[in-house]
Amino acid sequence: MGYLSPPSTHSNMKSISPTKDEKGELCSYDSWLGKHPSALDNFEEVMNIAEGKEIVVFLDYDGTLSPIVDDPDQAYMSDAMRSAVREVAYCFPTAIVSGRSKDKVYEFVKLRNVYYAGSHGMDISTPLGSSKYEDQKHQIKAVDEKGNHVVHFHPATDFLPTIQEIIKVLKEKTTRIKGSIIEDNMFCVTIHYRRVKNDEDVDVLREIVKSIMKGYPNFNISGGRKVMEIRPNVNWDKGRAVGYLLESLGFDNSNNVLPMYLGDDKTDEDAFKVIRQIGRGFPIIVSSIAKDTEASYSLRDPADVLTFLIRLAKWKKEPVTENK
Ligand SMILES: O=P(O)(O)OC[C@H]1O[C@H](O[C@H]2O[C@H](CO)[C@@H](O)[C@H](O)[C@H]2O)[C@H](O)[C@@H](O)[C@@H]1O
């Protein structure tokens, strides 16, 4: 089984926080690495487990394929990363699972040979004919720009008008908080405060958002990397999206499938948990600091991710050479 048991103290975790040891002291990165070993340093071990299995690759976008930057509209991925993802997607079914709207993440990634799940998995497109998912109400059959028959899955469609109303109110009420950005992610909303200069303004922004959202009980507020995220209260997240994609791509009954998920943020933890529940696969956290996580393996940053993806594609094409 390609899977390491989670440290027992990490179960039922609600958010990512710095990891503490038994004495309540912050863990060093090196001791954390003992529990979440580098997927690069242990590449051969990982790929020995993967040998003969059907690998499916899931990739988060921000902080995984692109470095974190101040301006969310400038979070470009490098050409080298694009080329590595393209190669990986030629070798294995590959999906990008992002908090951003599907269209926006496609604008950054620009690859046609990967699947996209935007809005934290609330906007997924897959080829027609594959999905046996019972929630027909939220599936729309369509023909894409290449003439392919596809299915769009939108479990939160009913919330769209309210989301637009929330965005309007948020924009009106937060104009005085310099540096704040309200990002329309289609089925969810992100409130950015990375560029808000002082902590008092961040606190005021938080209070404004909380106060507005009291009027919208069907929505939840969660956190991320210098963001607040507003999501409709539907039982759906990146973990459910991974399950949906595996099923839609025909891997639901396969005992041979090995999902590999690379992500850096709190919302990726839902996907890590699902892979743990499947009992096979590699939940890999991208982090240069020790933090509580359900992931088994780690990579330090997008540069590590790039090296890992290049090696992964090379392993598929030249397994013997890569394994030497
Ligand atoms: O699921 P993801 O693809 O990781 O998306 C999560 C959020 O990522 C973006 O925000 C983060 O990256 C920005 C650009 O580097 C950075 O400025 C921000 O502070 C980060 O939180 C994106 O803008 C959000 O909409 C996504 O929800």
Automatic annotation (TrEMBL):
Task: Name the residue ranges with Polar residues bias.
Answer: 1-18
The metabolic or biological pathway listed in the UniProt record of this protein is: Glycan biosynthesis; trehalose biosynthesis
Which InterPro entries does UniProt cross-reference here?
HAD-like_sf (IPR036412), HAD-SF_hydro_IIB (IPR006379), HAD_sf (IPR023214), OTSB-like (IPR044651), Trehalose_PPase (IPR003337)
> Which stretches of sequence are listed as region Disordered?
1-22
Q: Name one GO molecular function term.
A: trehalose-phosphatase activity
EC annotation from Swiss-Prot or TrEMBL: 3.1.3.12
Instruction: Quote the Pfam families the UniProt record gives.
Output: Trehalose_PPase
Tell me the cofactors it needs.
a divalent metal cation
Reactions this protein catalyses: alpha,alpha-trehalose 6-phosphate + H2O = alpha,alpha-trehalose + phosphate
Which parts of the chain span the membrane according to its record?
A: none
Which UniProt keyword terms apply here? Hydrolase, Stress response
Q: Which family does it belong to?
A: Belongs to the trehalose phosphatase family.
Q: What is the annotated role of this protein in its UniProt record?
A: Removes the phosphate from trehalose 6-phosphate to produce free trehalose. Trehalose accumulation in plant may improve abiotic stress tolerance.
The name on file for this protein is Trehalose 6-phosphate phosphatase
Tell me the lineage of the source organism. Eukaryota, Viridiplantae, Streptophyta, Embryophyta, Tracheophyta
